[in-house]
Design a protein that fits this description.
Layout (H helix, E strand, L loop, with lengths): L19 E7 L5 E7 L6 E5 L5 E6 L3 H5 E2 L5 H12 L7 H23 L45 H8 L15 E6 L5 H15 L20 E6 L7 E5 L2 E7 L1 E9 L9 E8 L4
Parallel strand pairs: 4-11, 5-6
Antiparallel strand pairs: 1-2, 3-4, 6-8, 7-10, 8-9, 10-11
Helix pairs in contact: 2-3
The chain binds zinc ion (ZN) (2 copies).
């Protein structure tokens, strides 16, 4: 289903496009509480209509939704708490400014948590990939698995228990690791709340019309596709929304004013639902993790 009504801070933004499902979270003292979590990436899909009347079904692959589609905190009370902390910082600000700072701070925390979960720790205590790109020779694990840290005798990467997975397992979330995938030391995201929904949908449709205006491109993959190439590249561009695209590396959100993303996608016209021109599956964020 679409976002539950309590997630009202998503209203009229692209964050409305994300679908959620309920799950029963165990609570202290027994019993459960109904909570909401994203549907898995494989189940997320969007209907996007183009200006010229084409209708596209957008799907996602390889945990793309959780890795790359970020939203502000769904929990108003968490944002309220952070807003209070922001209000204690030096300087005079309006309530609204403190609220905006709180959303941004929580978002950055989330982006860095995602980055951390995408670079697993080894049982030797070191990350699989060097977190600092300038330190690849002396940190992280080599492709053959040997740990590169001076003095570490670890001969092969073996994942340590993940706090991220443990927390999701304890909460009885249906998908305990929606970030599972190739390890990476950089992570990029689109901040859906930053972009009005109609503007976002227009950008997605325009990206397809830019490469395939008359729906003449052949399918780039069988359906269901079974291989990784060839991609068709789409650019989703939000020129009036600096900050809609962010990138994090080495413990920092180092780009917080991006306005576009280049994506590797597949086109398929097999097994189309009624009224749909083509299915476009987003698999890859080009050039970055
Ligand atoms: Zn090590
Ligand atoms: Zn190791």
């Amino acid at each position: 289903m679409a976002a539950p009504p309590s997630y009202r801070i998503h209203a009229n933004t692209a964050a409305e496009l994300i679908h959620y499902r309920s799950y029963d979270k165990p609570v202290a003292g027994g019993g459960t509480e109904q909570c909401w979590t994203r549907v898995s990436t494989a189940d997320e899909e969007w209907n996007i209509a183009s200006a010229g009347g084409q209708k596209f079904l957008i799907r996602f692959d390889k945990n793309f939704s959780k890795k790359h589609l970020a939203t502000f905190s769904k929990k108003d009370w968490v944002t309220e708490k952070e807003k209070w902390l922001q209000s204690q910082q030096p300087g005079q600000r309006t309530d609204e400014e403190n609220w905006n700072r709180a959303q941004k701070q929580l978002l950055e925390n989330k982006i860095l948590r995602i980055l951390g979960a995408r670079n697993p720790l080894c049982v030797c205590g070191h990350f699989q990939k060097a977190s600092d790109p300038a330190q690849v020779a002396t940190t992280g694990h080599s492709n053959s698995g040997n740990c590169k840290h001076a003095g570490c005798v670890c001969g092969g990467f073996a994942a340590a228990p993940s706090a991220y997975v443990a927390a999701r397992t304890a909460a009885a979330k249906p998908d305990v690791n929606p970030l599972l995938g190739m390890p990476t030391n950089q992570s990029s995201c689109i901040v859906l709340n930053w972009i009005p929904r109609n503007e976002f949908e227009a950008a997605v449709a325009a990206s397809i019309l830019a490469v395939d205006p008359a729906n003449a491109l052949p399918d780039s993959a069988p359906f269901p596709y079974t291989h990784a190439t060839p991609f068709i590249h789409l650019r989703w561009s939000f020129p009036g929304r600096p900050g809609a695209v962010r990138h994090a590396q080495n413990g920092n959100v180092d780009v917080d004013n991006g306005t576009y993303v280049d994506l590797g996608t597949y086109k398929s016209t097999a097994a189309l639902p009624g009224g749909v021109t083509a299915i476009w599956t987003v698999a890859h964020w080009s050039g970055q993790g």
